[in-house]
Amino acid sequence: MKPIIAIISLLTFLTACQQPANKEKVKQEIFQTEKAFEKMSSEDGIQEAFYFFAADSAVIKRQNDTLIIGKENIKDYYSNPAFKMAKVTWTPDFIDVSESGDLAYSYGKYIWTIWSAEGDTAEFKGVFQTIWKQQPDGKWKYVWD
Questions:
Q1: pLDDT digit string (tens) for the chain, length 145 residues
Q2: How many domains, in total, are found in the chain?
Q3: Whether the predicted model's global pTM rises above the 0.70 cut
Q4: In angstroms, rounded to a whole number, what is the distance separating the alpha carbons of residues 23 and 19?
Q5: Which of 31, 71, 75, 122 has the fewest Cβ atoms surrounding its Cβ within 10 A?
Q6: Would residue 16 count as lying in a domain?
Protein backbone atom coordinates (compact mmCIF):
# COMPACT_ATOMS: atom_id res chain seq x y z
CA MET A 1 0.00 0.00 0.00
CA LYS A 2 2.88 2.38 0.80
CA PRO A 3 4.32 2.14 -2.76
CA ILE A 4 0.95 3.06 -4.25
CA ILE A 5 0.61 6.08 -1.96
CA ALA A 6 4.17 7.11 -2.81
CA ILE A 7 3.47 6.88 -6.57
CA ILE A 8 0.22 8.84 -6.25
CA SER A 9 2.00 11.47 -4.17
CA LEU A 10 4.81 11.75 -6.71
CA LEU A 11 2.38 12.08 -9.64
CA THR A 12 0.38 14.72 -7.76
CA PHE A 13 3.59 16.65 -7.02
CA LEU A 14 4.81 16.48 -10.63
CA THR A 15 1.43 17.60 -11.97
CA ALA A 16 1.34 20.52 -9.54
CA CYS A 17 4.84 21.59 -10.57
CA GLN A 18 3.98 21.97 -14.26
CA GLN A 19 3.69 25.64 -15.07
CA PRO A 20 1.07 26.75 -17.56
CA ALA A 21 2.46 28.29 -20.71
CA ASN A 22 3.05 32.02 -20.74
CA LYS A 23 0.58 32.57 -23.56
CA GLU A 24 1.40 36.24 -24.10
CA LYS A 25 5.10 35.41 -24.49
CA VAL A 26 4.30 32.63 -26.96
CA LYS A 27 1.93 34.90 -28.92
CA GLN A 28 4.78 37.39 -29.25
CA GLU A 29 7.12 34.60 -30.42
CA ILE A 30 4.59 33.57 -33.07
CA PHE A 31 4.14 37.17 -34.22
CA GLN A 32 7.92 37.59 -34.51
CA THR A 33 8.17 34.25 -36.36
CA GLU A 34 5.47 35.37 -38.80
CA LYS A 35 7.34 38.63 -39.46
CA ALA A 36 10.69 36.82 -39.89
CA PHE A 37 8.96 34.44 -42.33
CA GLU A 38 7.54 37.38 -44.30
CA LYS A 39 10.91 39.17 -44.31
CA MET A 40 12.74 36.06 -45.54
CA SER A 41 10.21 35.63 -48.35
CA SER A 42 10.95 39.19 -49.47
CA GLU A 43 14.73 39.01 -49.11
CA ASP A 44 15.58 35.38 -49.95
CA GLY A 45 12.57 34.36 -52.02
CA ILE A 46 9.27 32.66 -51.44
CA GLN A 47 10.63 29.17 -52.03
CA GLU A 48 13.40 29.55 -49.44
CA ALA A 49 11.09 31.05 -46.81
CA PHE A 50 8.34 28.44 -47.17
CA TYR A 51 10.99 25.71 -47.00
CA PHE A 52 12.88 27.16 -44.03
CA PHE A 53 9.80 27.72 -41.83
CA ALA A 54 8.14 24.36 -42.66
CA ALA A 55 8.19 21.45 -40.26
CA ASP A 56 9.33 18.24 -41.95
CA SER A 57 5.74 16.98 -42.19
CA ALA A 58 4.15 20.36 -42.99
CA VAL A 59 1.12 20.58 -45.27
CA ILE A 60 0.04 23.53 -47.37
CA LYS A 61 -3.34 23.88 -49.07
CA ARG A 62 -3.32 25.73 -52.36
CA GLN A 63 -5.61 26.30 -55.34
CA ASN A 64 -8.46 23.87 -55.94
CA ASP A 65 -7.96 22.33 -52.51
CA THR A 66 -4.63 20.81 -53.49
CA LEU A 67 -2.59 19.56 -50.54
CA ILE A 68 1.19 19.68 -50.77
CA ILE A 69 2.54 17.36 -48.09
CA GLY A 70 6.06 17.46 -46.69
CA LYS A 71 8.80 20.07 -46.57
CA GLU A 72 10.56 18.83 -49.71
CA ASN A 73 7.33 18.83 -51.72
CA ILE A 74 6.61 22.37 -50.53
CA LYS A 75 10.05 23.41 -51.78
CA ASP A 76 9.32 21.75 -55.14
CA TYR A 77 5.93 23.49 -55.35
CA TYR A 78 7.54 26.91 -54.87
CA SER A 79 10.28 26.16 -57.41
CA ASN A 80 7.86 27.23 -60.15
CA PRO A 81 9.47 30.25 -61.91
CA ALA A 82 6.24 32.23 -61.41
CA PHE A 83 7.10 32.53 -57.72
CA LYS A 84 10.35 34.29 -58.59
CA MET A 85 8.16 37.01 -60.15
CA ALA A 86 5.97 37.30 -57.05
CA LYS A 87 5.92 38.93 -53.65
CA VAL A 88 3.74 38.07 -50.69
CA THR A 89 3.05 40.16 -47.60
CA TRP A 90 0.92 39.31 -44.60
CA THR A 91 0.17 40.24 -41.03
CA PRO A 92 -1.46 38.08 -38.39
CA ASP A 93 -4.64 39.64 -37.02
CA PHE A 94 -5.10 36.98 -34.35
CA ILE A 95 -2.87 34.47 -32.58
CA ASP A 96 -3.85 31.90 -29.97
CA VAL A 97 -1.80 29.33 -28.09
CA SER A 98 -2.53 25.89 -26.63
CA GLU A 99 -2.52 25.44 -22.86
CA SER A 100 0.72 23.46 -23.14
CA GLY A 101 2.34 26.30 -25.11
CA ASP A 102 3.76 24.11 -27.88
CA LEU A 103 1.03 24.65 -30.50
CA ALA A 104 -0.35 27.92 -31.80
CA TYR A 105 -2.36 29.24 -34.68
CA SER A 106 -2.56 32.55 -36.45
CA TYR A 107 -4.74 34.10 -39.09
CA GLY A 108 -4.83 37.36 -40.94
CA LYS A 109 -4.75 38.96 -44.36
CA TYR A 110 -2.25 38.42 -47.17
CA ILE A 111 -1.51 40.09 -50.50
CA TRP A 112 0.21 38.28 -53.38
CA THR A 113 1.63 40.56 -56.06
CA ILE A 114 2.69 38.88 -59.30
CA TRP A 115 4.59 40.51 -62.16
CA SER A 116 4.27 39.24 -65.71
CA ALA A 117 7.18 39.10 -68.15
CA GLU A 118 5.62 42.17 -69.80
CA GLY A 119 5.77 44.11 -66.53
CA ASP A 120 2.05 43.97 -65.71
CA THR A 121 1.08 43.29 -62.12
CA ALA A 122 -1.79 41.36 -60.62
CA GLU A 123 -2.74 41.45 -56.97
CA PHE A 124 -4.55 38.72 -55.06
CA LYS A 125 -5.85 39.28 -51.54
CA GLY A 126 -7.10 36.75 -49.07
CA VAL A 127 -7.05 35.34 -45.57
CA PHE A 128 -4.44 32.90 -44.29
CA GLN A 129 -4.50 30.51 -41.38
CA THR A 130 -1.32 28.89 -40.10
CA ILE A 131 -0.78 26.28 -37.41
CA TRP A 132 2.59 26.43 -35.66
CA LYS A 133 4.33 23.73 -33.63
CA GLN A 134 7.31 24.29 -31.39
CA GLN A 135 10.18 22.03 -32.38
CA PRO A 136 12.49 20.19 -29.95
CA ASP A 137 15.09 22.95 -30.46
CA GLY A 138 12.54 25.58 -29.35
CA LYS A 139 12.02 27.07 -32.82
CA TRP A 140 8.56 27.44 -34.31
CA LYS A 141 7.74 25.76 -37.63
CA TYR A 142 4.43 25.68 -39.43
CA VAL A 143 2.65 22.36 -39.78
CA TRP A 144 -0.31 23.75 -41.76
CA ASP A 145 -0.60 26.77 -44.00
A1: 554 554 555 445 544 445 567 999 999 999 999 999 999 999 999 999 999 999 999 999 998 889 999 999 999 999 999 899 999 999 999 999 999 999 999 999 999 999 988 888 999 999 999 999 999 999 999 999 9
A2: 1
A3: yes
A4: 11
A5: 122
A6: no
